């Protein structure tokens, strides 16, 4: 009991209070009961008309409540913690708009003669689009060029003949390599719509 009394008395002193304990052993009296006073002697807890009334547990609960109250009051004066700021997202890179062209869009009229459009010339390679409209190569004026030429038919239909070879019909997706120096003839192209070629000239 002495140890408990010392603990309660020390806890009260830390709160600026005074612990009072009854030592009267009168039958039906307040022996073993406690009371609390503030520093000015004002009765706070455990004082009744016939003596002290508080148990050790009630004193302990009161002191714990006072401690929590003191802590809350002290916490009011503390600066509020700012919530952690969200990391800024890195700026999105400004993307350039990609220029896209379509070889089958806005086809030129090729009724009178074939239309040749250069698409790219770089590093010894030249790429062109050829649009035909029913034309054919005259027998006496064959095509011939120094460099190799790779051609693919993209749209329409056609037929082609290389010197020393039979005539071959071409449908969209068909392609062939025409070696440099070899005579060749486009023997027909579609008369009812545009025939579109892609030609790659290799130096």
Notes on the structure:
This protein has helices spanning 2-14, 56-76, and strands at residues 18-21, 34-37, 43-45, 47-48, 51-52, 115-122, 125-132, 148-155, 158-162, 168-170, 175-178, 184-189, 195-202. With 203 residues, it is an alpha+beta fold. Strands 6-7-13-8-11 form a five-stranded antiparallel β-sheet, with no helix packed on it. A three-stranded antiparallel β-sheet has the order 1-2-3. A hairpin with a 2-residue loop joins strand 4 (47-48) and strand 5 (51-52). Helix 1 runs parallel beside helix 2.
Keywords:
single chain, alpha+beta, 5-stranded antiparallel β-sheet, 3-stranded antiparallel β-sheet, 32% strand
Element string (H = helix, E = strand): HEEEEEHEEEEEEEE
- This entry's quaternary arrangement is single chain
Overall 3D geometry? rod-shaped
Percent range for helical residues?
10-25%
- Number of discrete helical segments: 2
In brief, what are we looking at here?
The protein has 203 residues and is an alpha+beta fold.
Write the layout of secondary structure elements.
Layout (H helix, E strand, L loop, with lengths): L1 H13 L3 E4 L12 E4 L5 E3 L1 E2 L2 E2 L3 H21 L38 E8 L2 E8 L15 E8 L2 E5 L5 E3 L4 E4 L5 E6 L5 E8 L1
Antiparallel strand pairs: 1-2, 2-3, 4-5, 6-7, 7-13, 8-11, 8-13, 9-10, 9-12
Helix pairs in contact: 1-2
């Amino acid at each position: 009991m002495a140890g408990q009394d010392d603990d309660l008395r020390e806890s009260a002193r830390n709160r600026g209070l005074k612990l009072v304990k009854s030592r009267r052993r009168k039958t039906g009296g307040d022996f073993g009961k406690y009371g609390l006073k503030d520093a000015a002697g004002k009765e706070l807890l455990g004082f009744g008309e016939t003596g002290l009334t508080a148990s050790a547990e009630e004193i302990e609960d009161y002191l714990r409540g006072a401690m929590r109250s003191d802590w809350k009051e002290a916490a009011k004066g503390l600066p509020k913690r700012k919530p952690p700021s969200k990391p800024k997202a890195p700026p999105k890179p400004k993307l350039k708009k990609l220029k896209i062209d379509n070889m089958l869009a806005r086809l030129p009229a090729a009724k009178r003669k074939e239309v040749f459009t250069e698409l790219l010339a770089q590093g010894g390679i030249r790429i062109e689009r050829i649009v035909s409209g029913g034309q054919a190569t005259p027998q006496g004026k064959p095509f011939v060029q120094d460099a190799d030429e790779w051609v693919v038919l993209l749209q329409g239909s056609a037929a082609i003949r290389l010197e020393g070879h039979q005539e071959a019909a071409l449908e969209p997706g068909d392609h062939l390599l025409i070696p440099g120096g070899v005579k060749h003839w486009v023997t027909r192209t579609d008369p009812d719509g545009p025939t579109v070629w892609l030609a790659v000239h290799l130096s």
